[in-house]
Amino acid sequence: MGSIVEFNCLSCGYASGNLSVGWGKAGRTRFWGGLGVCAACQRVCVVDLSSKQDTHKCEDCEGALQLLEGLAQDIPCPSCQTVLKTKNHGIWN
Length: 93
Ligand SMILES: [Zn+2]
Ligand SMILES: [Zn+2]
Prior knowledge:
Blueprint: E1 2-8, E2 19-21, E3 33-38, E4 43-48, E5 66-68, E6 85-92
Antiparallel strand pairs: 1-2, 1-6, 3-4, 3-5
């Protein structure tokens, strides 16, 4: 099962909104939500890692996303680089 997470910056007020990460019942070949950062839009977004692409593009600006490895690490705010606070909003299948 995947999790629904949200990232907030206590410094500048950035909020990612709810992001679906991980994979559901269908398995990770179907949808595998990872995290990416768009430097241009200054936002964190979900990247479907199950798609066989070398580069993942931002939905908004078509720029290349920088992938974040795993969820354990501290994720810097895309706007001010402060470590983001992670909120868990539950799970999805
Ligand atoms: Zn910030
Ligand atoms: Zn972008």
